[in-house]
From TrEMBL:
One of its GO terms (molecular function) is methyltransferase activity. CDD domains: AdoMet_MTases (cd02440). This is Methyltransferase type 12. Keywords: Methyltransferase, Transferase. The lineage of its organism: Bacteria, Pseudomonadati, Bacteroidota, Cytophagia, Cytophagales.
Length: 250
């Protein structure tokens, strides 16, 4: 296994390989809380009817101008384009951005979500799917993002994001939770991806239970609605700025 570098992009390489015809291209996902798991590149290219119910519901809830964060290979952006939406798709992976260009996503940007330029452009829907709220990394990142998003969320706009409660990862055989209450929040998990021996830079990913998201939303001036849930402790959240909160960018 090679070490990561500033230019390593295992996700982009795997998506590109799949697009070029290697339908078996598969990433390996490493975390600090579970065994390594394979992640087929094909998952990022799924059609509407291959998507989980929560994702399909999120697409139904979209409105206006859409910003798709962590867009991957553009599956959601392309579906929304086909429905007539104006969509900008953003990803931190240079390879993913190139794949989206080649697949026909009309507007693609290569940014970290905290580095979105302050152009004054606003979006009616900010979309964060595939446990996409995890892009913020940590609870501190969640607070930072909710403040940051005010700068490009249109009046009356919404953030549609999926997340889940991963407390089950810390259950013992009797079902008791083995969580260090004095340590970091248990939903802050470290990830890394490997493709053909190349390991990408490790990154934090946040899984946040709904009650904690509620607290952070209120603190940042948002109202939270849980739009839908599934049997795997995953949920689709809608965050909208509370009345009078939109102009408070402090």
């Amino acid at each position: 296994m090679t070490s990561s570098s500033a230019t390593s992009d295992p996700l982009g390489r795997a998506l590109t390989a799949y697009l070029r015809g290697d339908k078996s291209a598969t990433l390996t996902v490493h975390t600090n809380v579970s065994e390594d798991e394979p992640l087929p590149a094909s998952y990022f290219f799924r059609s509407l009817w291959e998507m989980p119910d929560l994702e399909r519901r999120a697409l139904e809830e979209c409105q206006g101008r859409v910003l798709d964060l962590g867009a991957g290979a553009g599956a959601h952006a392309l579906e929304l384009q086909n429905r007539g939406f104006s969509v900008r798709a953003l990803d931190v992976s240079a390879g993913a951005v190139q794949v989206m260009h080649e697949r026909g996503v009309r507007e693609v940007a290569h940014h970290n979500l905290f580095d979105i330029p302050a152009t004054g452009e606003q979006f009616d829907t900010i979309l964060m799917l595939m446990n996409g709220l995890g892009l913020v990394g940590t609870l501190e990142g969640l607070a930072r993002f909710l403040k940051h998003a005010r700068g490009f969320l249109a009046p009356g706009g919404q953030i549609l994001a999926t997340s889940s409660d991963v407390a089950y990862l810390y259950e013992d055989e009797e079902g008791a939770l083995l969580i260090d209450l004095n340590g970091p929040y248990y939903g802050e998990i470290e990830y890394a991806m490997t493709y053909e021996g190349e390991m990408g830079t490790p990154f934090q990913w946040l899984f946040v239970e709904a009650s904690i998201l509620q607290d952070y939303a209120e603190e940042a001036g948002y109202e939270l609605e849980i739009v839908a849930e599934d049997e795997q402790q995953q949920y689709l959240a809608r965050l909208t700025l509370s009345a009078g909160a939109h102009d408070v960018n402090q």
